[in-house]
Amino acid sequence: INNSWNDEDSWWKDNFSSRPYATGRSYEDFRPGYRYGYESGRHHMGRTWTDVEPDLEQGWDRFEHKGKSTWENVKDAVRDAWHRVTGQSDLDASRMSEAEANRTSRGNRL
């Protein structure tokens, strides 16, 4: 996906409520997480979520747009935005063959 953050922001605002973690919460609760996942996904293409999550968790406190959100409150949103921008899905990458992992990381869905 080569959308701008504004495009993604609009998409998530329209679609976040369908996500299981969003029940009873507003879009503004998750917006910083979606932005972090979007920006991080664009900078870490080729890495899997499992590989990058510890780095993203450590970097969260330095993210300029985090507001008062904690990692625990937004990590599901970060993961969703990461998967959307990288073209990866929620499958367990450790069970994939190397060829499948390479194909997925290039944005081709399995």
How would you characterize this protein structure?
It is a single chain. The chain is built from five helices and no strands. The chain has 110 residues and is mainly α. It is globular.
Give the topology, please.
Blueprint: H1 5-15, H2 27-43, H3 49-60, H4 71-86, H5 98-105
Helix pairs in contact: 1-2, 2-4, 3-4
Low-confidence stretches: 92-110
Main sheet summary: none
Order of helices and strands: HHHHH
Number of strands: 0
> Helix content range of the residues, please?
55-70%
The whole-angstrom Rg is 14 Å
Summarize model confidence as the mean pLDDT: 84
Helix and strand content put the structural class at: mainly alpha
Distance N terminus to C terminus?
A: 16 Å
What fraction of the residues are assigned to beta strands by DSSP?
A: under 5%
SS summary, helix count: 5
In summary, what is this structure?
The chain is mainly α and 110 residues long. The protein is built from five helices and no strands.
Relevant terms:
mainly alpha
